[in-house]
Amino acid sequence: QVQLVESGGGLVQPGGSLRLSCVASGSIFSIVAMGWYRQAPGKERELVASITAGGGGITKYADSVKGRFTISRVKRTIALEMNNLKPEDAAVYYCSLGWEDNPLLGDLWGQGTQVTVSS
């Protein structure tokens, strides 16, 4: 059984930085894209960033985080470096993967980790 285990998150002041990590464990027989979604209270879940396994690791970012967030990957572990955080970045962040290297992810979810941006 494949599981996604997240770490990181927490409370940070506006302008600060955080790092999220996620590792996929278990038997994976297909190449998978991995990344992060987030969901704030009262809002829909949105794709934040993803990275494929093929193509040298093709990255995709939400417009709202471009230039501030960076996703990276080493095999089954991904990291999301979040810089210059804004109050609107506060949300529960979910690690996700997409079978067959689907950069839209959504085939499996982690338990979520809270990111709070507040002074």
Termini Cα gap: 40 Å
Share of helix, binned: under 10%
Work out the radius of gyration.
13 Å
Give the SSE string. Answer: EEEEEEEEEEE
What count of helical segments does DSSP give? 0
Mean pLDDT, all residues: 95
- Major beta sheet, specifics? 7 strands, mixed
Total strands: 11
Protein described:
- The protein is mainly β and 119 residues long.
- Helices cover 0% and strands 52% of the residues.
- The protein has no helices and eleven strands.
- It has strands spanning 3-8, 10-12, 18-25, 32-39, 46-51, 59-61, 69-74, 77-82, 91-99, 108-109, 113-117.
- Strands 2, 4, 5, 6, 9, 10 and 11 form a seven-stranded mixed β-sheet that branches. A four-stranded antiparallel β-sheet has the order 1-3-8-7, with no helix packed on it.
- The N and C termini lie far apart (40 Å).
- The model has no long low-confidence stretch (mean pLDDT 95).
In short:
The chain is mostly beta strands and 119 residues long. Helices cover 0% and strands 52% of the residues. It has strands at 3-8, 10-12, 18-25, 32-39, 46-51, 59-61, 69-74, 77-82, 91-99, 108-109, 113-117.
How are the elements arranged and paired?
Layout: E1 3-8, E2 10-12, E3 18-25, E4 32-39, E5 46-51, E6 59-61, E7 69-74, E8 77-82, E9 91-99, E10 108-109, E11 113-117
Parallel strand pairs: 2-11
Antiparallel strand pairs: 1-3, 3-8, 4-5, 4-9, 5-6, 7-8, 9-10, 9-11
